[in-house]
Model the fold of this input.
Amino acid sequence: MLGIEDLTREQISFILDQAKPFQEFQRYPLKKLATLRGKTVAVAFFESSTRTRISFTTAASRLGADTMALQAESSSLKKGESLIDTVRTLEAMRPDAIVIRHASSGAPEFVSQRLEIPVLNAGDGTHEHPTQALLDALTIRDRKGKLEGWNVTILGDILHSRVARSNIHLLSKFGARITMCGPAMWVPRELTNLAPDLHITHRVEEALEGADVVMVLRVQTERIHEPSLAADEYIFGYQLTPKRLRLAKPDALVMHPGPIVRGLEIDSTVADGPQSAVLEQVTNGLAVRMALLYHFVSRAPVDAPHPAKE
Ligand code: NCD
Done:
Protein backbone atom coordinates (compact mmCIF):
# COMPACT_ATOMS: atom_id res chain seq x y z
CA MET A 1 0.00 0.00 0.00
CA LEU A 2 2.39 2.64 -1.26
CA GLY A 3 0.10 5.23 -2.75
CA ILE A 4 -3.29 5.98 -4.26
CA GLU A 5 -2.02 7.01 -7.69
CA ASP A 6 -1.67 3.47 -9.04
CA LEU A 7 -4.86 2.07 -7.53
CA THR A 8 -7.97 1.58 -9.61
CA ARG A 9 -11.37 2.86 -8.66
CA GLU A 10 -12.42 -0.74 -8.02
CA GLN A 11 -9.53 -1.38 -5.65
CA ILE A 12 -10.34 1.78 -3.71
CA SER A 13 -14.03 0.86 -3.45
CA PHE A 14 -13.01 -2.62 -2.32
CA ILE A 15 -10.91 -1.22 0.56
CA LEU A 16 -13.71 1.16 1.59
CA ASP A 17 -16.20 -1.73 1.58
CA GLN A 18 -13.82 -3.80 3.68
CA ALA A 19 -13.56 -0.93 6.16
CA LYS A 20 -17.33 -0.87 6.69
CA PRO A 21 -17.60 -3.67 9.31
CA PHE A 22 -14.57 -2.27 11.13
CA GLN A 23 -16.29 1.10 11.28
CA GLU A 24 -19.22 -0.55 12.99
CA PHE A 25 -16.79 -2.35 15.27
CA GLN A 26 -15.45 0.94 16.72
CA ARG A 27 -18.85 1.28 18.44
CA TYR A 28 -18.63 -2.06 20.21
CA PRO A 29 -18.05 -1.92 23.97
CA LEU A 30 -15.30 -4.56 23.68
CA LYS A 31 -12.93 -3.55 20.94
CA LYS A 32 -10.67 -6.53 20.52
CA LEU A 33 -10.68 -9.20 17.84
CA ALA A 34 -8.54 -12.30 17.63
CA THR A 35 -8.27 -12.20 13.83
CA LEU A 36 -4.54 -11.43 13.75
CA ARG A 37 -3.58 -13.13 17.00
CA GLY A 38 0.04 -14.26 16.82
CA LYS A 39 0.83 -11.81 14.01
CA THR A 40 3.17 -8.84 14.43
CA VAL A 41 3.06 -5.45 12.75
CA ALA A 42 6.22 -3.31 12.77
CA VAL A 43 5.40 0.39 13.03
CA ALA A 44 8.47 2.36 11.93
CA PHE A 45 8.11 6.12 12.12
CA PHE A 46 11.17 7.99 10.92
CA GLU A 47 9.27 11.25 11.26
CA SER A 48 7.25 12.53 14.18
CA SER A 49 3.55 11.78 14.27
CA THR A 50 0.83 11.44 16.82
CA ARG A 51 -2.43 10.43 15.27
CA THR A 52 -1.26 8.25 12.41
CA ARG A 53 1.11 6.28 14.63
CA ILE A 54 -1.49 5.79 17.36
CA SER A 55 -4.09 4.92 14.75
CA PHE A 56 -1.99 2.18 13.12
CA THR A 57 -0.89 0.81 16.50
CA THR A 58 -4.45 0.77 17.81
CA ALA A 59 -5.74 -0.79 14.59
CA ALA A 60 -3.19 -3.61 14.90
CA SER A 61 -3.97 -4.19 18.55
CA ARG A 62 -7.76 -4.22 17.99
CA LEU A 63 -7.17 -6.97 15.44
CA GLY A 64 -5.27 -8.91 18.09
CA ALA A 65 -1.81 -8.39 16.55
CA ASP A 66 1.29 -7.35 18.46
CA THR A 67 3.25 -4.31 17.40
CA MET A 68 6.94 -3.59 17.23
CA ALA A 69 7.50 0.16 17.44
CA LEU A 70 10.32 2.24 16.12
CA GLN A 71 10.24 5.99 16.60
CA ALA A 72 13.36 7.60 15.21
CA GLU A 73 14.36 11.14 14.46
CA SER A 74 14.70 11.62 10.74
CA SER A 75 18.07 13.33 11.30
CA SER A 76 19.79 10.13 12.42
CA LEU A 77 18.55 8.23 9.40
CA LYS A 78 19.27 10.47 6.46
CA LYS A 79 21.15 7.90 4.42
CA GLY A 80 19.37 5.23 2.40
CA GLU A 81 21.85 2.79 3.85
CA SER A 82 20.73 3.47 7.41
CA LEU A 83 17.08 3.24 6.48
CA ILE A 84 17.52 -0.11 4.83
CA ASP A 85 19.68 -1.43 7.65
CA THR A 86 17.05 -0.36 10.16
CA VAL A 87 14.15 -1.99 8.37
CA ARG A 88 16.18 -5.14 7.71
CA THR A 89 16.86 -5.33 11.43
CA LEU A 90 13.16 -5.03 12.11
CA GLU A 91 12.45 -7.62 9.44
CA ALA A 92 14.92 -10.01 11.08
CA MET A 93 12.56 -10.05 14.07
CA ARG A 94 9.95 -11.49 11.71
CA PRO A 95 7.03 -9.08 11.67
CA ASP A 96 4.22 -9.89 9.20
CA ALA A 97 3.98 -6.35 7.81
CA ILE A 98 5.69 -3.02 8.23
CA VAL A 99 4.10 0.43 8.41
CA ILE A 100 6.49 3.24 7.46
CA ARG A 101 6.44 7.00 7.76
CA HIS A 102 9.46 8.82 6.38
CA ALA A 103 10.39 12.39 5.52
CA SER A 104 11.70 11.32 2.11
CA SER A 105 9.26 10.82 -0.75
CA GLY A 106 9.61 7.28 -2.08
CA ALA A 107 11.11 5.74 1.09
CA PRO A 108 8.31 3.14 1.55
CA GLU A 109 8.61 2.06 -2.08
CA PHE A 110 12.39 1.78 -1.73
CA VAL A 111 11.89 -0.43 1.32
CA SER A 112 9.17 -2.51 -0.33
CA GLN A 113 11.55 -3.43 -3.17
CA ARG A 114 13.97 -4.86 -0.62
CA LEU A 115 11.72 -6.63 1.89
CA GLU A 116 9.50 -9.65 1.46
CA ILE A 117 6.74 -8.49 3.81
CA PRO A 118 3.90 -6.06 2.93
CA VAL A 119 4.80 -2.38 3.36
CA LEU A 120 2.16 0.20 4.23
CA ASN A 121 2.95 3.87 3.60
CA ALA A 122 1.96 6.06 6.55
CA GLY A 123 3.10 9.25 4.79
CA ASP A 124 6.28 9.81 2.78
CA GLY A 125 7.68 13.31 2.32
CA THR A 126 5.43 15.36 0.08
CA HIS A 127 4.53 12.31 -1.99
CA GLU A 128 1.53 10.40 -0.61
CA HIS A 129 -0.43 9.58 2.52
CA PRO A 130 -2.70 6.88 1.11
CA THR A 131 -4.45 5.82 4.32
CA GLN A 132 -5.42 9.45 4.99
CA ALA A 133 -7.05 9.73 1.56
CA LEU A 134 -8.88 6.45 2.12
CA LEU A 135 -10.24 7.54 5.50
CA ASP A 136 -11.25 10.86 3.95
CA ALA A 137 -13.04 8.99 1.16
CA LEU A 138 -14.84 6.81 3.70
CA THR A 139 -15.92 9.94 5.58
CA ILE A 140 -17.22 11.64 2.43
CA ARG A 141 -19.04 8.50 1.30
CA ASP A 142 -20.73 8.20 4.69
CA ARG A 143 -21.64 11.80 5.26
CA LYS A 144 -22.70 12.61 1.71
CA GLY A 145 -24.12 9.24 0.66
CA LYS A 146 -21.67 8.68 -2.24
CA LEU A 147 -18.14 9.41 -3.28
CA GLU A 148 -18.70 10.31 -6.93
CA GLY A 149 -18.81 13.68 -8.59
CA TRP A 150 -18.43 16.27 -5.82
CA ASN A 151 -17.05 19.79 -6.06
CA VAL A 152 -14.06 19.59 -3.74
CA THR A 153 -12.06 22.62 -2.59
CA ILE A 154 -8.61 22.06 -1.11
CA LEU A 155 -7.34 25.00 0.87
CA GLY A 156 -3.79 25.75 2.01
CA ASP A 157 -0.24 24.60 1.37
CA ILE A 158 -0.92 22.13 -1.41
CA LEU A 159 2.65 22.06 -2.72
CA HIS A 160 4.04 20.43 0.43
CA SER A 161 1.03 18.31 1.27
CA ARG A 162 1.06 14.54 0.80
CA VAL A 163 -2.50 14.55 2.11
CA ALA A 164 -3.55 16.82 -0.76
CA ARG A 165 -1.75 14.69 -3.35
CA SER A 166 -3.31 11.42 -2.22
CA ASN A 167 -6.74 13.02 -2.02
CA ILE A 168 -6.38 14.57 -5.48
CA HIS A 169 -5.49 11.17 -6.96
CA LEU A 170 -8.33 9.43 -5.16
CA LEU A 171 -11.13 11.92 -5.69
CA SER A 172 -10.19 12.48 -9.34
CA LYS A 173 -10.74 8.78 -9.97
CA PHE A 174 -14.28 9.32 -8.69
CA GLY A 175 -15.02 12.25 -10.99
CA ALA A 176 -14.50 15.10 -8.53
CA ARG A 177 -14.09 18.63 -9.78
CA ILE A 178 -11.23 19.85 -7.60
CA THR A 179 -10.33 23.47 -6.93
CA MET A 180 -7.00 24.15 -5.25
CA CYS A 181 -6.64 27.41 -3.41
CA GLY A 182 -3.88 29.07 -1.41
CA PRO A 183 -1.04 31.56 -1.74
CA ALA A 184 0.64 31.41 -5.19
CA MET A 185 3.88 30.02 -3.75
CA TRP A 186 1.98 27.03 -2.34
CA VAL A 187 -0.36 26.49 -5.27
CA PRO A 188 1.79 26.66 -8.41
CA ARG A 189 0.36 26.04 -11.91
CA GLU A 190 2.23 22.74 -12.29
CA LEU A 191 -0.08 21.12 -9.73
CA THR A 192 -2.83 20.98 -12.38
CA ASN A 193 -0.80 18.19 -14.03
CA LEU A 194 -1.52 15.83 -11.12
CA ALA A 195 -4.94 14.80 -12.43
CA PRO A 196 -7.63 15.82 -14.91
CA ASP A 197 -10.13 18.57 -14.09
CA LEU A 198 -8.01 20.40 -11.52
CA HIS A 199 -8.50 24.12 -11.10
CA ILE A 200 -6.51 26.77 -9.32
CA THR A 201 -7.57 30.06 -7.82
CA HIS A 202 -5.86 32.28 -5.31
CA ARG A 203 -9.15 33.86 -4.26
CA VAL A 204 -10.75 31.95 -1.42
CA GLU A 205 -14.26 33.26 -2.11
CA GLU A 206 -14.11 31.95 -5.68
CA ALA A 207 -12.73 28.61 -4.47
CA LEU A 208 -15.53 28.10 -1.96
CA GLU A 209 -18.44 29.06 -4.18
CA GLY A 210 -20.64 25.96 -4.59
CA ALA A 211 -18.22 23.56 -2.85
CA ASP A 212 -19.63 20.24 -1.56
CA VAL A 213 -16.48 19.34 0.36
CA VAL A 214 -13.90 21.73 1.80
CA MET A 215 -10.58 20.17 2.78
CA VAL A 216 -8.44 22.42 4.91
CA LEU A 217 -4.77 21.51 5.13
CA ARG A 218 -2.53 22.11 8.08
CA VAL A 219 -0.32 25.14 7.62
CA GLN A 220 3.16 24.34 8.82
CA THR A 221 3.98 27.31 10.99
CA GLU A 222 7.68 27.05 10.11
CA ARG A 223 6.82 27.76 6.48
CA ILE A 224 4.96 30.92 7.32
CA HIS A 225 7.16 33.93 7.85
CA GLU A 226 7.87 37.37 6.49
CA PRO A 227 8.70 38.71 3.97
CA SER A 228 7.13 36.03 1.73
CA LEU A 229 4.05 35.47 3.87
CA ALA A 230 3.07 36.66 7.31
CA ALA A 231 0.63 34.72 9.50
CA ASP A 232 -1.81 37.66 9.45
CA GLU A 233 -1.77 37.69 5.67
CA TYR A 234 -2.55 34.00 5.56
CA ILE A 235 -5.40 34.35 8.03
CA PHE A 236 -6.81 37.34 6.16
CA GLY A 237 -6.50 35.63 2.79
CA TYR A 238 -7.26 31.96 3.41
CA GLN A 239 -8.53 31.06 6.85
CA LEU A 240 -11.78 29.10 6.71
CA THR A 241 -14.15 31.34 8.65
CA PRO A 242 -17.91 30.91 9.20
CA LYS A 243 -18.58 33.77 6.76
CA ARG A 244 -16.48 32.19 4.03
CA LEU A 245 -17.97 28.75 4.63
CA ARG A 246 -21.41 30.21 3.86
CA LEU A 247 -20.28 30.59 0.23
CA ALA A 248 -20.07 26.80 -0.07
CA LYS A 249 -23.18 24.60 -0.35
CA PRO A 250 -25.21 24.70 2.88
CA ASP A 251 -24.44 21.04 3.54
CA ALA A 252 -20.77 21.28 2.57
CA LEU A 253 -18.52 19.00 4.58
CA VAL A 254 -15.47 20.50 6.30
CA MET A 255 -12.46 18.21 6.66
CA HIS A 256 -8.98 18.54 8.12
CA PRO A 257 -6.34 15.79 8.51
CA GLY A 258 -5.01 17.27 11.74
CA PRO A 259 -3.19 18.48 13.62
CA ILE A 260 -5.33 21.62 13.53
CA VAL A 261 -3.76 25.00 14.14
CA ARG A 262 -6.84 26.81 15.40
CA GLY A 263 -7.03 30.45 14.45
CA LEU A 264 -4.56 29.99 11.60
CA GLU A 265 -5.95 27.81 8.84
CA ILE A 266 -9.38 27.30 10.37
CA ASP A 267 -11.61 29.20 12.76
CA SER A 268 -12.62 27.25 15.88
CA THR A 269 -16.34 27.76 15.22
CA VAL A 270 -15.95 26.00 11.89
CA ALA A 271 -13.66 23.26 13.22
CA ASP A 272 -16.17 22.43 15.96
CA GLY A 273 -19.30 23.21 13.93
CA PRO A 274 -21.95 20.82 12.56
CA GLN A 275 -20.38 20.70 9.10
CA SER A 276 -17.03 19.56 10.47
CA ALA A 277 -16.09 15.89 10.09
CA VAL A 278 -12.71 16.19 11.81
CA LEU A 279 -13.31 13.66 14.60
CA GLU A 280 -15.15 11.24 12.33
CA GLN A 281 -12.05 11.29 10.14
CA VAL A 282 -10.01 10.12 13.11
CA THR A 283 -12.42 7.28 13.95
CA ASN A 284 -12.64 6.26 10.29
CA GLY A 285 -8.84 6.15 10.21
CA LEU A 286 -8.97 3.21 12.59
CA ALA A 287 -11.48 1.37 10.42
CA VAL A 288 -9.49 1.87 7.21
CA ARG A 289 -6.22 0.82 8.85
CA MET A 290 -7.83 -2.25 10.42
CA ALA A 291 -9.20 -3.23 7.00
CA LEU A 292 -5.80 -2.78 5.36
CA LEU A 293 -3.90 -4.68 8.05
CA TYR A 294 -6.46 -7.43 7.94
CA HIS A 295 -6.14 -7.63 4.19
CA PHE A 296 -2.35 -7.58 4.03
CA VAL A 297 -1.46 -9.52 7.16
CA SER A 298 -4.00 -12.31 7.11
CA ARG A 299 -3.87 -12.58 3.30
CA ALA A 300 -7.45 -13.56 3.72
CA PRO A 301 -9.94 -14.20 0.92
CA VAL A 302 -12.01 -11.26 -0.28
CA ASP A 303 -15.03 -11.92 1.98
CA ALA A 304 -15.46 -9.08 4.44
CA PRO A 305 -14.75 -10.06 8.03
CA HIS A 306 -17.60 -10.22 10.48
CA PRO A 307 -16.54 -8.78 13.84
CA ALA A 308 -19.67 -10.11 15.52
CA LYS A 309 -18.55 -13.67 14.86
CA GLU A 310 -15.22 -13.21 16.57
C1 NCD B 1 -0.78 14.86 8.10
C2 NCD B 1 0.60 14.34 7.77
O1 NCD B 1 1.41 14.12 8.63
O2 NCD B 1 0.82 14.17 6.58
N1 NCD B 1 -1.23 14.51 9.35
C3 NCD B 1 -1.78 13.29 9.52
O3 NCD B 1 -1.23 12.28 9.18
N2 NCD B 1 -3.01 13.25 10.04
C4 NCD B 1 -0.98 16.27 7.81
C5 NCD B 1 0.00 17.23 8.35
O4 NCD B 1 0.71 16.95 9.33
O5 NCD B 1 0.06 18.31 7.80
